[in-house]
Amino acid sequence: MPITKSAKKDLRKTKRRTLVNKAIRSKAKTMITKAENQLAAKDEAAGKSVIAAISALDKAAEKGMIHPNNAARRKSRLMKKANKAAPEKKPS
Known about the structure:
This protein is mainly α and 92 residues long. The protein contains 3 helices and no strands.
């Protein structure tokens, strides 16, 4: 347990930041899962879900909740699934 006044304040700050960080990371994970489920179900709203998930990942990386490379890897995997689920277009 912290003894000094500043250490006690640091502990309070850490608890507050942990809650905020957890919420941001959780939202990003939830958005990814939602987008993947919609892609698997071939839902029409899947495109919007993918965009929302990418946005959530970018925000999490920008705020330092996840490493930028981690966000890039997750976005890449999500886009791979989105492109695979998209209907094939015939060249004109």
